[in-house]
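@here heads up, posting the sequence + SMILES for the adenosine-5'-diphosphate run so it's all in one place. Ping me if the SMILES looks off, I pulled it from an old spreadsheet.
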Amino acid sequence: MENRAFAPAKVNLTLHVTGQRADGYHLLESLVVFVGVGDRITVAPSQALGLTVTGPRAAGVPTGPENLVLRAAALLGSGGAEITLEKHLPAAAGIGGGSSDAAATLRALSALWGVDLPADRGLSLGADVPVCLRAAPCLMSGVGEVLSNVPALPAMWMVLVNPGVEVPTPAVFRGLSRKDNPPMSAVPAGKDAQGFADWLATQRNDLEPPARAIAPVIDDVLEAISASGGLIARMSGSGATCFGLFADAGSAAAAAHQIKEKAPAWWVDHGALGSFA
Ligand SMILES: C[C@@](CO)(OP(=O)(O)O)[C@H](O)COP(=O)(O)OP(=O)(O)OC[C@H]1O[C@@H](n2ccc(N)nc2=O)[C@H](O)[C@@H]1O
Ligand SMILES: Nc1ncnc2c1ncn2[C@@H]1O[C@H](COP(=O)(O)OP(=O)(O)O)[C@@H](O)[C@H]1O
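bot reply: prediction finished. Complex structure tokens:
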């Protein structure tokens, strides 16, 4: 008997940094969504705990106990399982790759072992794990542990582009010129894709300027997405992955193809926004 779980890409449509805690973690307000592009976790019964990393983005992903998949297993208990992680997301890319893998592992092993999900929803594994465990559009605040409902979003499709440079999350936060930026405004209801993108353009990702200073190629990525017809182009999380929003699957697929043609070395993928828990 095997259990499978999808680990969708986590995308921050907004990321307002509004303060900093005494422990150094930053207070955020972020509208988080998930896309049908991601990693895949398979777990099967076994005496011992083992991990195999496969897939087109396996290179460089740790296979030892520091892998967030094994750290999630350890958080759940001391059972055995043979875990396969099929990597499709670039690592350290601002789209929650490891965090989403950890959340998918918690879901799959909780079902395989018949144990409850952890009370902290995986927060001890990383600030992004609770939102990845929910894997549905929501407003994330606190340092990542407070999740609030948002009005239904219009149907939208997303192109994700990563230029192949790793941007260390702590360095991006350190590069902020201000940590007490203005908060988000309320997420609107009843908008179509264009109307929602127009609202989104009035919000921000405060980590974009420091990330662009570290990796100027992010400017080229944003430009390529805008040139491909994206309703909006913005960096996700601490980068370097950027996203473009589209009103239909066809325009997203055409944009992804156009960007891939222009920059064959970049990672480009596309999918629909949705809920994946
Ligand atoms: C920035 C965000 C936005 O969603 O995502 P990514 O860009 O990583 O995808 C997250 O807050 C990242 O979450 P996660 O990747 O789990 O962060 P953690 O491993 O807990 O922390 C990595 C480092 O980021 C910084 N950090 C993270 C979260 C936060 N609210 N304030 C911080 O200052 C800290 O320096 C911390 O040591
Ligand atoms: N399952 C995993 N997938 C990818 N990276 C992982 C995983 N487990 C641990 N890591 C380590 O965590 C670091 C950040 O991974 P990731 O969560 O993909 O970043 P981000 O949250 O910015 O998308 C990587 O550099 C990698 O060494």
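MO: Residues 97-113 form the longest helix (17 residues).
MO: One more: The mean pLDDT is 97.
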